Each structure stands twice: as C-alpha cells, then as structure tokens.
Automatic annotation (TrEMBL):
<dbReference type="GO" id="GO:0016705">
    <property type="term" value="F:oxidoreductase activity, acting on paired donors, with incorporation or reduction of molecular oxygen"/>
</dbReference>
<protein>
    <submittedName>
        <fullName>FMN-dependent oxidoreductase, nitrilotriacetate monooxygenase family</fullName>
    </submittedName>
</protein>
<feature type="binding site">
    <location>
        <position position="227"/>
    </location>
    <ligand>
        <name>FMN</name>
    </ligand>
</feature>
<feature type="binding site">
    <location>
        <position position="157"/>
    </location>
    <ligand>
        <name>FMN</name>
    </ligand>
</feature>
<feature type="binding site">
    <location>
        <position position="228"/>
    </location>
    <ligand>
        <name>FMN</name>
    </ligand>
</feature>
<keyword id="KW-0285">Flavoprotein</keyword>
<feature type="binding site">
    <location>
        <position position="153"/>
    </location>
    <ligand>
        <name>FMN</name>
    </ligand>
</feature>
<keyword id="KW-0503">Monooxygenase</keyword>
<dbReference type="InterPro" id="IPR016215">
    <property type="entry name" value="NTA_MOA"/>
</dbReference>
<comment type="similarity">
    <text>Belongs to the NtaA/SnaA/DszA monooxygenase family.</text>
</comment>
<dbReference type="GO" id="GO:0004497">
    <property type="term" value="F:monooxygenase activity"/>
</dbReference>
<feature type="domain" description="Luciferase-like">
    <location>
        <begin position="28"/>
        <end position="390"/>
    </location>
</feature>
<feature type="binding site">
    <location>
        <position position="103"/>
    </location>
    <ligand>
        <name>FMN</name>
    </ligand>
</feature>
<dbReference type="InterPro" id="IPR011251">
    <property type="entry name" value="Luciferase-like_dom"/>
</dbReference>
<dbReference type="Pfam" id="PF00296">
    <property type="entry name" value="Bac_luciferase"/>
</dbReference>
<dbReference type="InterPro" id="IPR051260">
    <property type="entry name" value="Diverse_substr_monoxygenases"/>
</dbReference>
<keyword id="KW-0288">FMN</keyword>
Length: 446
C-alpha cells in the first residue's frame, strides 16, 4: 500500500533540536544540551514516528558563523550541531519505519564520499535514507574549504549536475544480485555484476567503484529544495521529494503545476515526485488562543536578533536603533539587491502601518506563514492545499521543539487520521514504501 492508492498526505519534519523559530530555545522544554544529546534526539525521532511521519529530516551547512557573534550568541543557528549523517546513523537503530533524510552539499563533498555515506545509511536503516541535494549558499561554509567566497550560482549548479550523475553511477556499481556468497565455488561475488564508473567532467573526475553493495532502496530517495530555474528543472528530471517554500496557495499551486508539468519531458510519472511546501503551525483550543501563543513567542525575540534579521532582509544596518520608534526614513534603501520579495514585504509593512522597529520584527517572518488554529482548522488548511493541487503533503517546521511537535502529534495527527488523511500504522518498511515511490532499476539491468 502506498500514498498513491489513498488520500494520505505526506508528512516530513524539518528537525531542529529546539525548533526553527529564532527564539525557540528560550521556550523549548528540551534539555539545555539538546543539540548534541543523543538520548534527546532519539526521543524526538520516536515522537515523529509515533505521529506516523514519512520523513525525519536534518538541514545542514558545513560551517559556523564567524561574525556578528553578539547576535548569533542569542540565536545560535548552525553554531553547534551534529554532522547529520552521523546522527541519522544513530537514529537508524532507535527507529523502525520513519525515513531519515539529510542535506549533503555538492559543493563541499566529493561525490565518492557522499555516495558512500548515504549508501551506508540506507543499509544501516534497512532502506530509509534520503539525500537532499544542495549546492550550499553560505560563504561561511566556502571559507572552510579553501575559498574566499562561494562560486557563482551557475557554476555551483554545473558542478552539482556532474556530482549528481557520478553519485547515481556509483550507487549502481553492484547489481542487486552480485553477491552470491557461494562457499562451494569459493566465490563471494560475480565479477560481471560489478561496474566501474569512468567520468571525466569539467568539475568532477572519477574512475572507480563504490565499495558497498547496492542499497535496500536501490538508492536513497532524492530530495531537492531550490526554486531557481536550475533547481526546478533538476527537480523535474531527478527529484523524488521537493521541499517548496511558497507562502501563498496561489504561488504554491503555480509552482506545483510548473514542476510536475516538466516531468513528462523526462518520461516520468507525476506520482513519482512528492511536493511538500513548508508549514509552521500553532495549535490552540481556539484560533485566538493559538494566536496568543504565537504572539508570546514572537515577543521573546531579543532586540539584537530582531534588528539583525530585519536588517539583513531590508539591507540596512539597524544596529543600536531604538526599538520603540519607527526606522528613520533615510536608512531605508530605495531598492533591494538580495531578496526582492522579503524586501518588499518589509517596506510595505513600514509604509502601510507605520510600525515601530519592535512591531516590525515581531510581525515579519521571512515570507513564511504560521497557521494558528484548532486541530480541525489546521487540517482544513492542509486539505485545502492538497485537494486544491498545491501540495502532496507538508514539511512541518515546528517553531518550538519538542513543545509544538507534541501538540501536533497528540492533537492534529488524530484529526488527520479521523479524516483518512494519514496512515494509522506504517504499511511498508522503506522510505520508498512510505512515499509510494518505485524502487529504481539499476542502469546496468535496464
Ligand atoms: C525545507 C528546506 C530545507 C532546506 N535545507 C537546506 C539545507 O539544509 N542546507 C542548505 O544549504 N540549503 C537548504 N535549503 C535551501 C535550498 O536547498 C536552496 O539552496 C535554496 O532554496 C536556493 O536554491 P535556488 O538557488 O535553486 O533557488 C533548504 C530549503 C528548504 C525549503
């Protein structure tokens, strides 16, 4: 049984130790050392599994911030964390059904390392691994790898293409039935079922073969999250899960139709790609109670963090400005260089509502929407998106973990199950089974 046969929504959890909100750690009930506490991570993954999630996912960037430490000491994002495949390998032993996905950078790994790591994870978890193919957009990471700054967008994607091709070939090194362990004939594997990769690209060169057998899923599930032209065409050609980030239904629906519409050019069935927009929720016994909870959390944002995050998207230095007055007009740039949409959202708030700096940073959340409501209202919202052709399910980015995850699992999940929108029990054993994805046939068997 798979998601394609029924009305199940796909559920992923974007897992941060204390949540994705900038002030999450101030409200989280997690232990103080949560980010590197394996007992805590095991409880968290089990909670997602209790909620019958398809996928437990770890974002990653290989580099801590080295500047603005006063601000980042109050918002310690990416400053202290496990290497994700190492953590997932530990979680493979304490979970049974939930998929285990992580980001792996095509800019800062060699394809051989990456193919080996994720193949090992797929074996360790008996078929539950997923790789989020990311080019990494952080100069902090670049400086850890001998560069002064990131290579340009086009160059990163050109390397990503070659990198991906090599990883896929390496994963097909061994045919499924290559290992025969025939003691009588003294033969462990059949040499003709072993295939060498020989790839000479502009960015990547590999002549060799992977030293681990083909994985339970054939290969890990391929995840993609970029929304540029390159990102979308890569998704249509090769991705099996896409993390989308459009804040409104209309934009999400356009993105969904756009990416799925490109798949026929690659001879792919649209059921073989699951598009999951990000979703943050606040659960309450009434909409007003949920909104109060969210406001309380927003009010915990430290002024230094508020100024830094708003300043980044407004492309203005707001350091030291009084928070209970509006931003002086002369500091507001005429136009944006970086994120047009974020910039427009902030300047609209300034022009239309004449908000103070504090009011601004407590109402602005980088184009993201938080759905506040009762469990019924939240499931209504999710159904509207899925049934309206804007999503196959959602990537849940909980503001405060484990608090909001517990609320979701205990209150929203039962409502989803009552409406027949989420499995009550897992039916398969692999991540591909959870998602209703086919097991890929090796290129050498085709
Ligand atoms: C749910 C989600 C998770 C992501 N996780 C990561 C991550 O772990 N590491 C990273 O460098 N980028 C991550 N990204 C960013 C994207 O992979 C991508 O780099 C970004 O959207 C820009 O891509 P584009 O240039 O194709 O638009 C994530 C995006 C989304 C929506």
């Amino acid at each position: 049984m798979s998601n394609t046969d029924n009305r199940n929504m796909v559920l992923g959890m974007l897992a941060y130790a204390t949540g994705q909100h900038v002030a999450s750690w101030l409200q989280s009930t997690a232990p103080a050392d949560a980010t590197t506490n394996i007992g805590y991570w095991r409880r968290l993954a089990s909670l997602a599994e209790e909620g019958r999630f398809d996928l437990f996912f770890l974002a990653d960037s290989p580099g801590a911030r080295t500047e603005k430490l006063n601000d980042f000491s109050r918002f310690p994002y990416m400053m202290n964390m496990f290497e994700p495949v190492t953590l997932l390998s530990a979680l493979a032993g304490s979970t049974k059904h939930i998929g285990l996905g992580a980001t792996g950078s095509t800019s800062f790994y060699e394809p051989y390392n990456l193919a080996r790591l994720f193949a090992s994870l797929d074996h360790l978890s008996q078929g539950r691994a997923g790789w989020n193919v990311v080019t990494t957009a952080s100069d902090y990471a670049a400086r850890n790898f001998g560069l002064d700054r990131l290579p340009p967008h086009g160059q990163r994607y050109a390397r990503a293409r070659e990198f991906f091709e090599v990883v896929m070939r390496l994963w097909d090194t061994w045919d499924d039935d290559a290992f025969i362990a025939d003691k009588a004939a003294c033969r462990m594997f059949e040499p003709e079922k072993f295939h060498v990769t020989d790839f000479q690209g502009e960015h990547v060169r590999v002549h060799g073969a992977l030293n681990i057998r083909r994985t339970p899923q054939g290969r890990p599930v391929i995840i993609q999250a970029g929304s540029s032209e390159e990102g979308k065409s890569f998704a249509a050609e090769a991705a099996e899960v896409v993390f989308a980030s459009d804040p409104t239904f209309d934009e999400a629906k356009r993105f969904y139709a756009d990416v799925k519409g490109r798949m026929s050019a690659f001879n792919r069935d649209t059921s073989q790609l699951k598009i999951l927009p990000g979703l943050s929720v606040m659960v309450g016994s009434s909409k007003a109670e949920a909104e109060d909870k969210y406001r309380e959390l927003q009010n915990l944002i430290h002024p230094d963090v508020g100024r830094m995050r708003l300043g980044m998207d407004l492309e203005a230095d707001l350091t030291g400005l009084p928070v209970d007055e509006p931003i002086p007009e002369h500091l507001i740039p005429k136009k944006a260089n970086l994120h047009q949409a974020y910039f427009r959202q902030i300047t609209t708030l300034i022009r239309e509502q004449n908000l103070t700096l504090r009011q601004l940073y407590t109402s602005y959340d980088r184009g993201k929407v938080t759905v506040c409501g009762t469990p019924e209202q939240i499931v209504d919202y999710m159904e509207e998106w899925v049934d309206g052709g804007a999503a196959d399910g959602f990537m849940l980015a909980f503001h405060v973990v484990p608090n909001d995850t517990e609320d979701f699992v205990r209150k929203v999940v039962p409502e989803m199950q009552r409406r027949g929108r989420l499995r009550k029990e897992y039916t398969g054993t692999t991540l591909r089974d959870n998602l209703g994805l086919e097991r890929p046939v090796s290129r050498h068997a085709r």
